[in-house]
Design goal:
- The chain is of the alpha/beta class.
- Helices cover 44% and strands 20% of the residues.
- It is built from nine helices and seven strands.
- A seven-stranded mixed beta sheet has the order 3-2-1-4-5-7-6.
- The N and C termini lie far apart (46 Å).
């Protein structure tokens, strides 16, 4: 009997359950960053930031918070984007895994001002207003109830808006990624968790339900599909 993609899977990911060394975890995050680059993961977020800051004065500084930064590759991409745009940006990341902070810091060139923090984002008390919260490939780790809480939290903490980038639950990426990960001989977590992440991810109806549970008005947030099999949710205030 074939796998059903009708509902979100409740399978667990090794990354969330298995204790590993810092070096093993670093290898996993490094391979995930390679996957992000190959699959254009960060492109929709950068395009949204372009749109979100278009009407701001060039010298108007904004703060961006990345929830679940992992290897820090998205924050480094945003730093490069801000340099190209001449946009002053304060970059902060919060990640639940205590190994992420030293790994991301070590992967970040000296002189690149990114503030990496460890902890539960719901306990995070910003020292300055947060303009934008972004989260990439993180929300599929959450239940629908946790997602609704997360969206309400972003609504409260952001001055200008938020962006969630995640996966579209579909058999094509599920099977293609599983094959690609084995051929590329990526980290065993990536080989196992990649297909599980896709099975745990979303269709539009899932997001419609979560947004309603979070108390957002219809049409308050935008749900958009991006190549390859990304389903992203955003809100500009």
């Amino acid at each position: 009997m074939g796998r059903s993609f009708a509902e979100r899977s409740h399978e667990t990911e090794l990354m969330d359950t298995e204790a590993v060394s810092v070096e093993d975890y670093r290898a996993c995050l490094k391979d995930l960053a390679t996957v992000n680059a190959l699959t254009l993961t960060h492109r929709p977020i950068l395009a949204w930031l372009d749109r979100a800051t278009r009407r701001l004065a060039p010298n108007e500084r904004v703060t961006v918070l990345d929830v679940g930064y992992g290897y820090g590759d998205l924050l480094r991409k945003i730093h490069a984007w801000s340099g190209r745009k001449g946009r002053a940006v304060d970059l902060v990341g919060v990640d639940l895994n205590p190994m992420s902070e030293p790994i991301a810091q070590a992967a970040t060139p000296s002189g690149v001002p990114i503030e990496y923090r460890t902890g539960d984002v719901f306990d995070y008390k910003p020292e300055r207003p947060i303009d934008f919260v972004i989260s990439s490939q993180t929300t599929h780790h959450m239940s629908n109830e946790e997602l609704a809480t997360f969206i309400r939290w972003m609504e409260q903490i952001t001055a200008r808006g938020w962006y969630i980038a995640d996966l579209h639950r579909h058999p094509v990426p599920f099977h293609v990624f599983g094959t690609l990960a084995r051929v590329a001989r990526w980290h065993r977590f990536v080989q196992h968790d990649g297909p599980v992440s896709i099975a745990r991810s979303f269709r539009k109806a899932d997001w419609d339900s979560v947004l309603k549970a979070a108390g957002l008005e219809p049409k308050a947030a935008e749900i958009r599909w991006h190549v390859p099999f990304r389903l992203c949710v955003s809100r500009l205030k």
